Amino acid sequence: MSRSRFSIPRYLSFFNQTVSFVGGVLNSYVFVVLGISIARIVTDQRVELSTTLKWLWIGITIYVVSTTIRYLYARFLSKNSKIEAVTFAFGGVHGAVTLALSFSLSEMGIKGTDFDLILLTETVVIILSMLVPTILFKFILNPILDDDDILLKSKRVREKMVGVGINYVRDLEISPAVKESVTFDLLDQTRKTTVKEFLAQWRGVNNRRYAFSGFQAVEERQILMNTFEKEREFLYELLDGVELSEAQYIYDVYSELLISESLVLDYRE
Fold first, then answer.
1. Of 12, 26, 122, 200, which is least packed with CB atoms within 10 Å of its CB?
2. Is residue 67 packed enough to be buried (19+ CB in 10 Å), middle (13-18) or exposed (0-12)?
3. What is the CA radius of gyration of the chain?
């Protein structure tokens, strides 16, 4: 697949987006089922849960053992560094697949208290796999990551990039309506356009103020393409001499810019 990804790029992009969407839906479904199951168990067996904590200790034991095995595998079999092995061991949500498979046990005759015990045990594993890394990684990964958050860096880069584009459009001698429309589209990249500004643009399209045709439509499209080129040049300068680990947030912004450009290229009236 990776060696023929550029033969039909639109279809491959759509395929990747579909796989990502389906994966997100299925992952969310697991937690919906988990929440419903926990609510049923707590409601039906509140007394039994309070009298024995066997399900809690079993879940903790399984989490510790599985995390240890993951660490040993990453450290000694895969030959990763200590920090990489720890990240691999604690990263991700553990037990979600096992939880999904545990529902097949009801078809094998395991029901009632035993089945509820399995669900509660897997619930403990899943909750620990979410809570422990959240706390642990805050202290372990801080020396590796920069002080500024990746999202904050992306936001700053995006704002500077859009500023370059707006300054380019501001110096052009074009019709005011086209300039206003292009400027709004560029500001939309920063995700800061207000509802009031959006409604003003929407009303402008409805009353044909921003519904360009003929020469103005071609002019708007060409200006957007030229502006995106200026923004790309700005990102190129930022990437010059930057290590890959530090440049990832710039690549994320660059990817969004290319998608925006593809929307302009694929525009149909």
1. 26
2. buried
3. 26
Question: Which CA distances in Å does 2 have to 7, 11, 95, 157?
Answer: 10, 13, 30, 29
Contact 94, 69 (CB under 8 A): no
Task: Give the pLDDT confidence of 225-235 residue by residue, as tens digits.
Answer: 999 999 999 99
* Amino acid found at 253: V
Which residues of the chain carry a pLDDT beneath 70?
1-7, 45-50, 96, 100, 142-149, 201-202, 204-213, 244-246, 267-269
Contact 125, 159 (CB under 8 A): no
Whole-prediction pTM value?
Answer: 0.59
Distance CA 170, CA 172 (A): 6
The per-residue pLDDT for 241 is 75
- DSSP 8-state assignment for residue 94: -
Contact criterion met (CB below 8 Å) for 161 and 235: yes
Q: Distance between CA 48 and CA 71 in Å, rounded?
A: 35
